[in-house]
């Protein structure tokens, strides 16, 4: 059943590596990749061999980062390759093959614990943010200065939240900056069963799966197209919020009446139905079909479908029926019963009753 919705296993071996990203200036390597924190991680563990795991878009910076870490710590650095498939997970096997005593994972990560005990440090990076352009785009999308505003960001851009909030506070009265989602290092605290039992609601996750697999993904990565309920609602309901503002719902019950996310269909004469559609064949915009209500009672009458007869034509059957002899037929009850008689003996070239020639 899994092969019906996901790609075959052979696709991982035939997948090509992604295009290399933009190289980071050498002066920004320490800030972007947090090399000071990584060097402290290596020194504290006193590791002599450390594996560095980079995704495809960051492989261009792998060489300078490894060289600078070797110069700072004196340890041997190994750059792991062949991580294009599942680069968000820690490649423990590749680190063990290199004999590494620790691993540093750079780039986006699902933060799943490694399958085998190995010290791991996650470096999510610090992406550069153009604060002025971001503030202008934010003000264009949120023109109401009295509405509550919450600033959220991915981990790579969390360093710019306070600076962005400084630019927006003079305009927005009620502004709240989100705190880091992970204030403690991953794996520093063990789960305690007693506090967990006090929560009545539980969220089951399949063990061994990455959290990124539960996130919205384009259906082109699957062997069969996958359509989420909210995507179907967006295609059929013109009143559904645009992309980026609409919630991503995976349960069909959330779209039914009574749910807080339910959006009723607009009336037939609404202007929302006049939005042009994109043809999947030509890729061009096409106007919606004209809809006009009609009071003619004749248009509501059902038309009976004519009875259609199925005609089959077989040249071989027609030729066989036209022949006088159509093969051996049993003709049960149509021939008289006679006793068994002795037939001819011998071989076809010379029977006994024919005599010698």
TrEMBL record:
Coiled-coil boundaries: none
Name the record gives this protein: 2-(3-amino-3-carboxypropyl)histidine synthase subunit 2 isoform X2
Pfam families recorded: Diphthamide_syn (PF01866)
GO BP terms in the entry: protein histidyl modification to diphthamide
Highest taxon of source: Eukaryota
UniProt xrefs under Gene3D superfamilies: Diphthamide synthesis DPH1/DPH2 domain 1
Gene it is expressed from: DPH2
Molecular-function annotations in GO: 2-(3-amino-3-carboxypropyl)histidine synthase activity
């Amino acid at each position: 059943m899994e092969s019906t919705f996901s790609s075959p296993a052979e696709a991982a071996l035939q997948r090509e590596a992604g295009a290399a990203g933009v190289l980071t200036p050498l002066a920004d390597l320490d800030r972007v990749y947090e090399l000071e924190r990584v060097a402290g991680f290596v020194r504290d563990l006193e590791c002599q061999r450390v594996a560095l795991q980079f995704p495809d878009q960051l492989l261009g910076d792998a060489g300078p980062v490894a060289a600078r870490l070797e110069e700072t710590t004196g340890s041997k650095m190994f750059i792991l390759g062949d991580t294009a498939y599942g680069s968000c997970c820690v490649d423990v096997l590749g680190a063990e093959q290199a004999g590494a005593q620790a691993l540093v994972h750079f780039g986006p990560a699902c933060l799943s614990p490694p399958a085998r005990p190995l010290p791991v440090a996650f470096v999510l990076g610090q992406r550069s943010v153009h604060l002025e352009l971001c503030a202008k785009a934010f003000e264009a999308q949120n023109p109401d200065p009295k509405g509550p505003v919450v600033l959220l960001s991915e981990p790579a851009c969390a360093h710019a939240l306070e600076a962005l909030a400084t630019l927006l506070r003079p305009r927005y009265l009620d502004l709240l900056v989100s705190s880091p989602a992970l204030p403690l290092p991953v794996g520093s605290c063990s789960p305690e069963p007693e506090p967990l039992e006090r929560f009545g609601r539980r969220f089951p996750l399949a063990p061994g799966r990455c959290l990124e697999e539960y996130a919205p993904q384009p259906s082109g990565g699957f062997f069969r197209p996958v359509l989420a309920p909210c995507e179907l609602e967006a295609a059929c309901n013109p009143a559904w919020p645009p992309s980026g503002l609409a919630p991503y719902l995976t349960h069909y019950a959330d779209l039914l009446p009574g749910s807080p996310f339910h959006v009723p269909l607009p009336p037939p004469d609404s202007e929302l139905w006049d939005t042009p559609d994109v043809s999947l064949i030509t890729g061009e915009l096409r106007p919606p079909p004209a809809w006009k209500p009609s009071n003619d009672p004749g248009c509501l009458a059902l038309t009976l479908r004519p009875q259609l007869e199925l005609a089959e034509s077989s040249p071989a059957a027609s030729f066989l029926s036209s022949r006088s002899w159509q093969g051996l037929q049993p003709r049960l009850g149509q021939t008289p019963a006679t006793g068994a008689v002795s037939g001819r003996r011998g071989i076809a070239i010379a029977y006994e009753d024919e005599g010698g020639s």
